[in-house]
Structures are given as structure tokens and as C-alpha cells.
Write a structure and sequence with these properties.
399 residues, binds pyridoxal-5'-phosphate, 15 helices, Aspartate Aminotransferase, domain 1, 13 strands, 4-stranded antiparallel β-sheet, Aspartate Aminotransferase, domain 2, 2 domains, 7-stranded mixed β-sheet, single chain, 42% helix, alpha/beta, globular
């Protein structure tokens, strides 16, 4: 008998899904062959290219030396880390969250992938409500847990907000988790107090765990986004996720937190994190303390993203795109020009002008016969201002 092992059957649906960036990567390769890599202006992947703040890097270097013998880290966050998160939440949102109500995570991705494993019972039709487009680990974690993703199409006609009212009673009854993401990637929409309150009431009334992914909370263009923690009633039903990846250009450090006022929600996550991982390296937790306590660098970065946005927006308009001005995140979601599909538009942009973006339909899926990414492209404002201006200059030649 030939050797054979079977993967967990819940995994099959995930493994068979195409990788959204395959098309983008293969076109990028062709463009690099044609123009050379220096010519490419990349608005593709949402990974900050700006340096991690110097104070954070310095703190990290010093911490390595201070901690001469390494020792295992505190797996769910050392005391100073939790204190810094608690103080950040107080300064930024005026909410009181004690250190016992915080768990460190390897960024928001780790948390949103694992939460369904702890809150869904496999193969019973238990459902997670997931924004579409939305961050893929929400659905991947749900599928691995043996749960059922139900997508909330994020549509312009609904002001790019999830529509809870149109859900069928059976779907609501089966739902155990709602993933909410404000500021929302990729549309850049920030939900106001009213929408957040609607989400909290919907979850509280229907015994649904509200997972609020706030990893873009510091990236905004006008009004600072609210945290779900500011909304009355959220204490009981929500877990908040945030991270330093985007706030402090620390994607490579992979550090964030989960916080909840409800121990019944936080404890399973905390306990399973303790059981499964050794935790964030202590010197990274030390650097994270410096980052959470500093608001100066976030203010500077907001000004940088604003300049890039102001440069790119008219450039896209001049070629017939209709960009949706983002309220938050560092993404711009834009209608592609008439006569193009997202893929044909992004191919022309890349292969003729050396400008990379992501076709919206590839980061969104068809649900209820609609793919909300159809007709859109996503631009990440991660290229430096000079490169962004150079892109706009090239677009003047658009034919
Ligand atoms: C909506 C959303 N949530 C979470 C993440 C991942 O965050 P982290 O780097 O903290 O794991 C991303 C990264 O792109 C994201 O877009």
C-alpha cells in the first residue's frame, strides 16, 4: 500500500483556494523583466515601506543586551507590555482596560485566525459573519474550525458598511462570531458611533461574539476612528484586536494585543495562547512598550499618508478612475475606468506604465451572486511621495 496521509478535512477548502496575489505577482515579474525593478512603483501589498521609528529600534537593540540570558518570554505579555497597552487605550480612546484584560498576540492576524477555533464547534453549521472584501484569515480560521463563513458584502450602495438588517433569521441564529473591521480594509471606510452601536446591539441581542479588528485605528485622514470599547454594551460581547504593524511600521515585529472586558471571552483565548506558543520575544515586547507609549510618530505618519493620498487621488481621476476617498487605513479603493475590468486595468497600469495595484475582485469573493470587488482596484499608499508623484506624472501620458 502506498503511504498516504489525509489532511484535516476542514483544511481542504482552504488549501484549494487560489492565492489572490498569484496574478499580481506573475504580472509584476513580467513588468520587472520589461522595465527593471527600479522602474516599478508599487501600490500593491499593504506593507509599510517606511522605517520603524528610531526610538523603537533603539529600545529593541538595548533590550537585547539588557536581557543577557534570554529565558522564555511571558507568553501572553509581560507586565510592562500589558501596562503600556492599557495606558494606550486610556490615552487614545479614554477607556479603562486593566492589565488582566489584555493578552499579547503575534499581531492581529494570529488572533483573528485562532479565535474561531476556540468559539466554534466543528461541523454543526455554526457561522461566522465576515466582511467581503475582508482579511482572509477571518474565513480561513473559520473553515479550519469547521465553521461556516457567511459573507457580508461591503457595497457602495450601503455606504461600504455591513448590512445586518438584511440577514435571514436562520443565519443570525447560526451565527456565533461577527468580524468587524473599522477602519475597513480595503474600502477605507470608518464606522461612526451609530454603526458601531448597531453592531454591538446586534451581537448582544443574538449571543454573537463581536471580534473588532482595529489594526488601522491610527491611520486616518480626518476624524480619529472610535474603538468598539467606547460603545456601551461592548464590555460583554466583544474582543478587540489591535497591533503595531501598521500603527508603527512594525510588520516585521509581529506584535499586537487582544483585549476584552469579559473574562469569559478572553480566558479561552488567553489559555490556548499559553498552551500553544512561547510568546512574543521579550525584547520585542520591550520595543512595543516604547511604540504604544509614543503618539508622535503616528501623527507624523498620518501626515505622510495624507500627502501621498492627495498626490495620487487626482492622478487616478485624470485617467477615469473614480477613487473613494478613504477615511482611514492606507488604502484607496477606486472604481476602475470605464471599459476595463479590474484585471485588464491593473495589467495595463503595470505592463505599460510600471505601476502596480491590486484588482479588487481578487481580494473579494462572489457571494449571493455579487463580487463587491468587481469594478474596483486597491492602491496601498506605501510608495514614497516622490514615487507617487512620479506615478502621477506617468499617468499624464495615459492612452
Ligand atoms: C484588516 C487586517 N487585519 C489584520 C491584519 C494583520 O495584522 P498584523 O500584521 O497585526 O497581523 C491586516 C494586514 O494587512 C489587515 O489588513
Amino acid at each position: 500500500m502506498p503511504f498516504s496521509v489525509e489532511v484535516n478535512e476542514n483544511l481542504r477548502g482552504i488549501l484549494s483556494q487560489p492565492y489572490a496575489f498569484d496574478v499580481v505577482d506573475s504580472n509584476k515579474k513580467k513588468a520587472i523583466e520589461k522595465f527593471g525593478s527600479d522602474f516599478i512603483i508599487d501600490f500593491g501589498i499593504g506593507d509599510p515601506t517606511d522605517p520603524t521609528p528610531e526610538i523603537v529600534r533603539e529600545r529593541c537593540k538595548a533590550a537585547v543586551d539588557e536581557r543577557k540570558s534570554s529565558g522564555y518570554p511571558a507568553s501572553v505579555g509581560h507586565a510592562q507590555f500589558k501596562e503600556a497597552v492599557s495606558s494606550y487605550l486610556k490615552s487614545r480612546f479614554n477607556v479603562s482596560v486593566s492589565e488582566n484584560e489584555v493578552v499579547s498576540t503575534y499581531g492581529a492576524k494570529y488572533a483573528c485566525f485562532h479565535i474561531p477555533l476556540y468559539f466554534l464547534t466543528p461541523n454543526k453549521g455554526q457561522t461566522a459573519l465576515i466582511p467581503n472584501p475582508g482579511y482572509p484569515p477571518y474565513s480561513e480560521g473559520t473553515l479550519l474550525a469547521g465553521g461556516k463563513p457567511h459573507y457580508l458584502n461591503i457595497l457602495e450602495e450601503n455606504n461600504f458598511e455591513p448590512d445586518f438588517a438584511s440577514l435571514e433569521a436562520k443565519t443570525v441564529k447560526d451565527s456565533k462570531i461577527l468580524f468587524l473591521n473599522s477602519p475597513h480594509s480595503p474600502t477605507g471606510r470608518v464606522y461612526g458611533r451609530e454603526k458601531l452601536k448597531e453592531a454591538v446591539d446586534f451581537c448582544a441581542d443574538n449571543n454573537i461574539l463581536l471580534v473588532s479588528d482595529e489594526c488601522y485605528s491610527e491611520l486616518y485622514f480626518d476624524q480619529p476612528p472610535k474603538s468598539i470599547l467606547e460603545i456601551k454594551g461592548s464590555e460583554e460581547c466583544s474582543i478587540v484586536l489591535n497591533s503595531l504593524s501598521k500603527r508603527s511600521m512594525m510588520t516585521g515585529y509581529a506584535v499586537g494585543f487582544a483585549a476584552s472586558k469579559n473574562p469569559g471571552l478572553l480566558k479561552p483565548f488567553e489559555s490556548m495562547t499559553r498552551k500553544s506558543v512561547q510568546g512574543i520575544a521579550s525584547f520585542i515586547q520591550d520595543a512595543a512598550v516604547t511604540a504604544w507609549n509614543d503618539f508622535g510618530h503616528t501623527e507624523k505618519m498620518r501626515a505622510v499618508y495624507k500627502k501621498r493620498l492627495e498626490a495620487l487621488l487626482p492622478g487616478l481621476e485624470q485617467i477615469g478612475c473614480k477613487p473613494i476617498k478613504p477615511q482611514g487605513t492606507f488604502f484607496m479603493w477606486a472604481h476602475v475606468p470605464d471599459g476595463f475590468s479590474p484585471i485588464s486595468f491593473s495589467e495595463k497600469l503595470l505592463l505599460e506604465y510600471g505601476i502596480n495595484c491590486v484588482p479588487g475582485n481578487l481580494i473579494s469573493r462572489e457571494f449571493n451572486k455579487v463580487n463587491p470587488g468587481d469594478g474596483f482596484a486597491r492602491f496601498a499608499l506605501v510608495a514614497p511621495l516622490e514615487k507617487t508623484e512620479e506615478a502621477v506624472k506617468r499617468l499624464r501620458e495615459w492612452k
